[in-house]
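Fold it.
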Amino acid sequence: VEFFVLDNGQLVVNEIAPRPHNSGHYSQNAMDVSQFELQVRSMTNLPLVQPRQHSATIMLNLLGDLWFKDSNTAQAPEWDQILALPGCHLHLYGKVDAKRARKMGHLNITAATPEQVRATALKAADILGIAAF
């Protein structure tokens, strides 16, 4: 369940989805067992194990705005430049049409240390035109 807190303090339900939440997508590349595998295990009565993080990671959401970086015509970002960076794992969702503010995928970046992963994530963000963080 995803909630928002409005300026007046009111709690509003935004989304109820019986699936792994976006906040854990980094587990695909940084954990020995991903949230997706654990969901399948839980639904099929297979053993559940404690996941173990093996890499520092940062996940960047990829919104459709990235496809409109230089014009009003959709054009795929420079994935080759992103994938040339160490530890970059691109996950696109197969959506046919890119639209501004629409989530099109995510990029997991892994490295041995938080400092290394942040440095690579900032390079990826610069290539994509995402504001530094």
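The radius of gyration is 17 Å.
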